[in-house]
Write a structure and sequence with these properties.
13 helices, Rossmann fold, alpha/beta, 19 strands
Length: about 475
């Protein structure tokens, strides 16, 4: 391999240059963390740093195998691949097989690039690799299982065995939960960059664009000004200021993991302190059964005004009906449950007539099929969130519930002929969300609980004290 070949960053004119300060910080993080994320606005050099790390590891460790990808291969070819080939001098490339999406260097290292969707084919291909580097451009586009699969294959000897990804903020998604909310946990780290500092007036000339306000001052000042003045505020918050508080694409954007405000409900969230629930309120147990996927159970009480109180929950994968029945027994002991609702799928006969529903019946739990109307259920739950009628007890077991609800997003629309696919949420981590739909559909079709009648007494001068009603507190 020629020693004069330059591998590194370049200016727009193609001249060698040093990495920007944020790029340098990112690459330093990459050497010290197992999983590193470059997040923030676009334009500060995330993708260039990603392909540099891939190229550097491919050259430093002969015989290395690196995997680079993006959700769609067309997007990768038009953007990430161009940056990668600009980073690697052609004289050190032995061959580039565009059909197999593989670049082989003279030192026998290989860089494989592919479409990283959640298809079985993609997952199987990732699971067959023995990687030394794993990189993803636009991590927010892919499912977490793909990221986990790639990191699980970092086992190649004589390599760094680290991963690096880029992304633009996308609300409180799994990426936010893994890298931002729990930054530093399990060897993760992130570096954020912005093309303009929030609160600073738009630039009026190139001299206004400095490192104090921009992580890439080589960007034209009028380009930055155009973004700040011509784009919608929500877009600017996400793609210029790098804010993770983005609710675009959420199925239930009104759901808030914040304290409930009794005086001004519209100003607060949906979290309430636990309290003793009235014995006169209706109580429901809602189940979405799974084995490989989690079985998710919600315990809901409904007051006389139609407000829901989620007072307990349970979610666990890899367990059978007997285990979940024991959990149910412990949680509902001594309670008067109005109805047990479950996913209609557990009533379907498969290889035998012994359905999942019958297995629960063997343990004394008689579920009835819930209304599984998708569109109506989503709308009914959305109104309940918006009207602050859903209230969740402030308990640690609800963390998984909130992770699901706050990341429940619409799937991408696909065109089929002259008609669009129906709008549907992504089918990932939606088990508690299904429970909410079952609950909403049931309440929408039934009457709310009636207030109990107090005992009333009247005096008959001839017969003494008499009850007018039997029921009372």
């Amino acid at each position: 391999m020629g020693t004069e070949a330059y591998i590194g960053f370049r200016t727009e004119e193609g001249n060698p240059s040093r990495p920007l300060p944020k790029q340098k910080k990112l690459l330093d993080f990459f050497t010290r963390k197992n999983e590193t994320l470059a997040d923030g606005s676009f334009g500060w050099g995330k993708t260039d740093a990603l392909v540099y790390a891939c190229a550097h590891d491919s050259i430093r460790f002969p015989g290395n195998l690196s995997l680079l990808g993006r959700k769609y291969i067309d997007s990768f070819n038009k953007s990430t691949l161009v940056s990668l080939l600009d980073m690697i001098p052609p004289e050190i490339i032995k061959r580039h097989n565009k059909q197999e999406h593989e670049i082989e260097l003279l030192n026998k290292s290989k860089i494989v690039y592919m479409q990283l969707d959640s298809s079985r084919e993609a997952i199987q291909k990732v699971n067959s690799m023995n990687l030394g580097f794993f990189g993803v451009d636009q991590l927010e586009e892919i499912d977490e299982e793909v990221w986990i699969a790639g990191n699980a294959r970092l086992r190649r000897k004589r390599s760094r065995r680290h991963s690096l990804a880029t992304c633009n903020p996308d609300g409180h998604s799994w990426v936010w939960n893994r890298f931002i909310r729990h930054s530093g946990r399990n060897g993760t780290g992130h570096v954020s960059g912005v093309v303009w500092k929030e609160g600073v007036p738009p630039p009026a000339c190139q001299e206004d664009v400095t490192f104090d306000v921009c992580d890439n001052p080589h960007l034209p000042w009028d380009y930055i000004r155009s973004l700040l003045t011509n784009m919608p505020d929500r877009w600017v918050q996400r793609f210029v200021y790098g804010s993770w508080e983005n609710f675009e694409g959420l199925v239930w954007p009104d759901a808030r993991q914040q304290p409930f405000n009794a005086k001004h409900p519209e100003q607060g969230g949906h979290v309430v302190k636990p309290f003793k629930i009235s014995k006169h309120w209706d109580r429901y147990v809602i189940l979405d059964h799974g084995h490989r996927n989690p079985t998710a159970i919600l315990f809901v009480a409904v007051d006389f005004d139609g407000n829901w109180y989620l007072y307990d929950c349970h979610s666990e994968a890899g367990r059978w009906v007997d285990y979940h029945s024991s959990v149910l027994e412990a949680k509902v002991h001594g309670q008067d449950i109005t109805a047990f609702l479950a996913d209609p799928d557990i009533f379907r006969e498969r290889e035998s007539e012994y359905t999942i529903a019958r297995q629960y019946e063997d343990f004394g739990f008689y579920f009835e099929p819930a209304n599984n109307d998708l569109g109506g259920g989503i709308d009914n739950v959305a109104r309940a969130w918006q009207e602050r009628r859903i209230r969740v007890f402030d308990l640690p077991q609800f963390e998984g519930f909130w992770d699901e609800v706050l990341n429940y997003r619409w799937d991408e629309m696909r065109v089929q002929g002259i008609r669009n696919d129906p709008e549907r949420p992504k089918k990932v981590k939606d088990h508690y969300c299904d429970d909410l739909r079952y609950m909403a559909n049931h309440l929408h079709a039934s009457e709310k609980p009636k207030r109990p009648v107090r005992e009333r007494y009247w005096i008959n001068r001839n017969r003494g004290l008499n009850k007018q009603a039997f029921m009372g507190y």
